[in-house]
Amino acid sequence: MTMRAYVALGSNQGDPQARVLAAFDALHALPQTTMQRRSSLYRTPPWGVTDQPDFINAVAELETALPPQALMQALLEVELLAGRTREGRRWGPRTLDLDLLVYGEREIDEPHLTVPHPRIAERAFVLLPLSELASALHIPGRGRVDALLEKVDASACKRLASPT
């Protein structure tokens, strides 16, 4: 059985746009997984720790037979291959950040995996590209993407490129 999953991508180190585009390719190559669609790229201001470069953000829609824990492990491996290390400040600069946002209608609360992503409703840099792919998507326990997007300030997020 396959499941629809949404993954947020972000980078603000090196060549962030190239890193996000390469991450799309890596997601497409995951076992038992097909990337259905990808959002445009967005330049967004940093969130949390603001004294760092802007980010390039996007969202990928996946169809996957991987269980959520295995998918999350695969995302961590893609980050590692892109040079991501987890030392340093929380919400600080990063070569690549991949977050599992939604996994079907599942709600998961485990030590190393929370789905839907716990801060999804607060982040314009996630909701904007997600709404491009699935504005009517109901996020379990949170509401529809389009309604959540209306509640955040997305004015500083700038669309850069359409999906190809």
From TrEMBL:
Enzyme Commission number(s) of this protein: 2.7.6.3
GO BP, one annotated term: tetrahydrofolate biosynthetic process
Domain spans labelled 7,8-dihydro-6-hydroxymethylpterin-pyrophosphokinase: 90-101
GO MF terms held by the record: 2-amino-4-hydroxy-6-hydroxymethyldihydropteridine diphosphokinase activity; ATP binding; kinase activity
Keyword Methyltransferase in record: no
Pathway: Cofactor biosynthesis; tetrahydrofolate biosynthesis; 2-amino-4-hydroxy-6-hydroxymethyl-7,8-dihydropteridine diphosphate from 7,8-dihydroneopterin triphosphate: step 4/4
Keywords: ATP-binding, Folate biosynthesis, Kinase, Nucleotide-binding, Transferase
Kinase among keywords: yes
NCBIfam families: folK
Stated family: Belongs to the HPPK family.
Function: Catalyzes the transfer of pyrophosphate from adenosine triphosphate (ATP) to 6-hydroxymethyl-7,8-dihydropterin, an enzymatic step in folate biosynthesis pathway.
Full protein name: 2-amino-4-hydroxy-6-hydroxymethyldihydropteridine pyrophosphokinase
Originating species: Oleiagrimonas citrea
